[in-house]
Write a structure and sequence with these properties.
Layout: H1 2-25, E1 34-43, E2 47-51, H2 59-70, E3 76-80, E4 89-93, E5 106-111, E6 114-119, H3 122-135, E7 152-160, E8 166-172, H4 180-192, E9 197-201, E10 203-204, E11 207-208, H5 217-220, E12 224-225, E13 246-247, H6 252-263, E14 268-275, H7 280-285, E15 307-308, E16 316-317, H8 328-344, E17 349-353, H9 360-364, H10 366-375, H11 380-397, E18 401-405, E19 418-421, H12 426-433, E20 438-440, H13 443-446, H14 467-470, E21 485-492, H15 500-507, H16 510-519, H17 527-544, E22 556-561, E23 567-572, E24 579-583, E25 608-615, E26 618-619, E27 624-627, H18 628-637
Parallel strand pairs: 2-3, 2-4, 4-6, 8-9, 8-21, 9-14, 14-17, 17-18, 18-19, 19-20, 20-21
Antiparallel strand pairs: 1-7, 5-6, 5-7, 10-11, 12-13, 15-16, 22-23, 24-25, 25-26, 25-27
Helix pairs in contact: 4-6, 8-11
This protein binds acetamide.
Amino acid sequence: MKKSFILLFLCFVTVTAFGQNVQSRIAIIPEPVTITENPGSFTLPHHITIEAPARADLKETLAFLTQKLTVPTGNEVKIIHRESADATVRLLLNKQVNNTIGDEGYQLSVMPAQVVIKANKPAGLFYGIQSLIQLFPASIETDNLVKNVTWETPCVEITDYPRFGWRGLMFDVSRHFFTKQEVEQYIDQMVRYKYNLLHLHLTDDQGWRIEIKGLPKLTEVGAWNVKKEGYFGTFTPPAPDALRNYGGFYTQDDIKELVQYAKARFVNILPEIDVPGHSLAAIASYPELSCTPGADKYQVNSGEPFMDWSHGAPPIALVDNTLCPANEKVYTFLDKVFTQVAALFPFEYIHVGGDEAPHNYWEKSPQIQALMKKEGLKNMNEVQSYFTKRVEKIVESKGKKLIGWDEILEGGLAPNAAVMSWRGMEGGIAAAKMGHEVVMSPTTYVYIDYMQGDPIVEPRVYSTLLLSKAYQFEPLPDSVDPKYIKGGQANLWTEQIYNMRYAEYMTWPRGMAIAEALWSPKAKRNWDHFFGKVEQHFKRLDAAQIKYAPSVYDPIFKVSRTTDKKLRIELGTEVNGLDIYYSFDNTFPDNFYPKYSGPLTPPDDAVMLKVITYEGNKPVGRMIYMPIEELNKRADKK
Ligand code: ACM
């Protein structure tokens, strides 16, 4: 009895310790399908031998692994292309296909003296390497020599493969232009989390970003606007003769390089040419593409107001930013554009936008009236659907499939179109029920241009998406046949994103949450476990000098009125286990100040509530200055 009690006790201690160990030492994002931790550890020797298949499509994979294993460690790597049972790291392509892991999966064995990664295809080896790197200390992410680190990983057996084949990030390079090098940087960052699709939003009202031969004005005129800073969408209109030197575009050679860069990292690029709305840059270049007289005076938008959103979507245009569906020149133009886009991007889909096209100018256009009569179109949605069906024929004539935002459902979906569902999941569900392919990209969970914390801290955007909400993204609704749901993606619109550091801030850590929704088994998702890993990854991103948002540590403010109309302030956190300290006396709270333990009512003359979160005696959140006036406004708004 006594003996078995001791055994039970020992067993309990071991399990607990093991559990903590797993939590702290293994922090792979996205969570692998199965992980078994074994006793012992593997330490990198100074002389490392990597056995790898001799294949051109593994060149970047090997360069990446070599960089990681040599630069921060000071170790040396030798790559050999023959079987070598005693190589330090063996990268093996299965001779017999392992059906469980598919084209992107891998098996990773870390043993005390050797690491083996097996996969069916090179992409699997690449993802196995990403997981392996995440097992080493965070300093492996540094790009210079780091001393006094033991380059050690726990011994593990991992079998891993993705839940969805379409794991996308959309980067809007139109609202603000990002250089080819910056897009490459973005690709380097996304593949850490096993994303395999980069959707480039290449055209919009603020810039046309791709060279099209034979249409030079698209990039001479359409790629440039006036540099403005502040709150995009509220800028003063630029003077007619203001210098238009802000922006840029990718030459066709740039695009070819980007496509190759992405391919070498197992990423497809989905190009988007957003039509018929969001087309002001094209119209400013070639005004004949518009139905509206006077379009020859139009200029590329620089962030000044030009749409009235007060009635919801679609907006009422103050400047007609639509291509004219009744004008044959538009289809000739699009044929030219899609011929070249199709030749440049090997991916099987072309995205044609379709979102938020205002119809108010079409309603007034005699050309559109004539088209409606001729084609028997009853309303503007049917006019847009007529347009999209013609665009689908063009896209298909180039050997590609069409994908568009969910507005393309309205007025009748083009016969073979795939739908990217952004206004919630409903459009995607409807399309899947009609037998169309779907990518889920709902604002509710994956719009990473939204603020990730309180607007008093975050640069203002019209909506908020917290990390914990992004982590709830479930791409596969119960009610649809899974075969139609290709996957999902996060969207980084860049109206308010002026530079690469801020693009990073907005992408991470929410990009980690969405990566886990797209890769990991649904049953393995667990917020507390995930957030523990995110904290480890903050250290990795610090080492890699990639910016991320610490917003998840900031407190959440909730306000209401008491029965006697006093302000009632509730504070909370997304993360468990944090303490919130506060002051009303304008001084800076720390962990010696009052600790929040329940709703607060500010003293009569207080003007400012300052708050900060702590984990134990370490500050983790930012010092937040919340004017009482702001809280009163929020309480009265309800
Ligand atoms: C979109 O967000 N307008 C697709």
